Amino acid sequence: MMDIVNSIDMCYFCLFKILLFIKKIPYNFLVINFRGMSVMKNSKWYEKNYRRHLLDMHIADWDESFLSEFSAETYFENLKRANVTCAMLYYQSHAGLCYYPTKSGKMHGAFIGKEDEMKKLTNMCRANGVAVVGYYSLNYNTWAHDEHPEWRMIEVDGCSKRDKPYSDIPQSFENAGGRRYGLCCPNNDDYLNFVYKQIDEMIEYFTPHAFFFDMLFWPHQCYCKHCQKRWKDETGIDGLPTSFDENDPMWKLHYERRNFWIGEYAEKITAYVHSKAPHLTVEHNVSAAAKGGYFGTCNKVNNVSEFAGGDLSGGLLEESVTCKMYSGITMNQPFEYMFPKCEPSLYKHTLTKTDDHIEAAVFLTAAHHGATLVIDAIDPVGTMNIKSFDAIGRAFAKQIPYEKYFVGESIADIAVAYGLESKSFGLLGNKYTNHDTAVSFIKNMIEAGIPVDVVSKRKDMSKYKMVFASCLWQDDKELIDSLLEFAENGGVLYVGGAENKPLVEKITGGKVVGMTTSNANYLEPKNEFVELFEGFDHDYPLQLDGYVPLIELDKSNGNVRVLATLTEPYTKLNDTKFASIHSNPPGIHTDYPTALEIDYGKGKIIYLGCPIENEGYIIYQKIIRNLIDRYVGLSNLSVSTTSPTDVETVAFRDGNDFYINNVLLYDPKNKPHIPSFEVRVKTESNPKRVLILPDETEVDFVFDGKFTTFTTRETKIFDMYKIEI
Ligand SMILES: [Zn+2]
Hints:
By secondary structure, this protein is of the alpha/beta class. It has four domains: 2-42; 51-406, TIM Barrel (Alpha-Beta Barrel); 412-635, Rossmann fold; 639-724, Sandwich (Immunoglobulin-like), CATH 2.60.40.1180. Helix content is 30%, strand content 22%. The chain has 16 helices and 31 strands. Strands 13-12-14-15-22-21-20-17-18 form a nine-stranded mixed sheet, with helices on both faces. The protein has an eight-stranded parallel sheet with strand order 7-6-5-2-1-10-9-8. Strand 21 and strand 22 form a beta hairpin. The chain is globular. The two termini are 40 Å apart. The relative contact order is 0.08.
């Protein structure tokens, strides 16, 4: 479909050029107008739609009071209070009960006699310019689980989680240790066909702009007969692995298959919706992509989502990291960040975040030019907390004047590689993962006042000067190929860890002959690099918390310089024999390298056997900043600030104009206050004006021939500045 549209555009484009030649009309003028028309023709509901809302309705119907007070009119009035431009509405829920008259499943009992209440709400929203996304829960379907035992996901002990004796499950406040959820297996074609039938029903009954499909991950390894068969058919191996050791090759193979299966499942759902309703946007929840530990990679899932979006509740640093990650992987902008209005999450039903906290979360996503979706939950009887809608409305009202400035491309010289295939587990016995190292690195950059991007997929990285990439597995081959191309073409690539042995051998030109036997090690800088490593030296080397590769270098390779070598402690960490009873001081100096500088094509690769950016201590953070200074120059960064450590700057360039967004990573226990600080931007030209938006108050600035520097005002949570050239 898109290819046909593009080819039509191209024909018109050629025709326009011929007409322009004949008429001698200013070419650029008409190209701009023509492209504007083209954009309008293809514009989608989600473009410029930044204020979104979802009311969880995972409500049972065993008590006839449940949802008895649900009212489309009241719901819509509340959406107006919240100033939203998009409402995600429940057409079905984890409970498996539908909010429409279904033939394939079961409608929620409260809708008997008012079957069209959700349809009314859909139509009311549409009639008033509020976009509608229909919510559907895949796999988490308690009604289907209970009704169709043959569809269930089965754990290694042969039981579904919901069927387990209560005494076997750790108790928790929110969901009886997961036993409220009935899990159906995505590898079961009968269940898939049931989902298709429900999609048919929803498409026929409702007129949404989009569908949102939730729960695209494996909550546990499934041992149902369909998974068993698929495993055998695809691998030829009898019996699904029962190992939970991520260093076990069988576990790893099973992990890869599960990620493939869930991705293929998402592909089937998207394709099915589009086969019936090509105009509908399909969004799958890709929040698992932003999580460490096992929840799935979402790489293939994201590829069939029209934009990246998903819910997280881990706080503002997680939100900042996720915004950068979603922004990097989304097929279309804006990406969508979802957060719960409850503190910390929906399991505290009556505990609402403070106004300042909601505002900080909204503006952190706004600072990245993303769309915010706030999640609230309905009361069992169907009433809604008006105070929550009012609070969301107050935060969204403050965002409205800024939305017209959500334009341009992010400016960052530094990026971090987030490997969707590598993020989940630490290999080699190390505790840290690609996810951990990326999050720590981003925190370091925020605290240093240096804008940073996240790269997760194969892409042109030429806009960056230095990219940090640690603990990547071979599975992230495409991302690794892009990173190597980046270095080949003149970029500086930092690689940490030894999870990918062939990569380490390729870039160092050496051979990995083993790993240290202890995970307490030391990085001993060569004399000329003591300053680079903050004064650590032969006698007092830098402690490394992890197993480190033993690399034998090719001494004839002039492209490789050793910055630091490995020093090991006198004894292993778990030995009772000791040199010093409290610690493991350095004792054995070796020639194995722990830090290398490698000429690679037109660029450089800096290799560290242990990813020191994972450490949160300031001394390690300073060494990382020293590396950036050595290879990029801290005084040469496109954007830098002297902001306090809890203020993040996200910068964009749109044509000749620069937008500088400063946002507080707000700790609810502190006062929401951003003091004045300095912002320095490489504008190359003398600006006409520097403005505080949206009021356009002019700010004094200094231009030194290359950089424009100005001082921000004291403010509360968010400020946006524009530099007009
Ligand atoms: Zn299964």
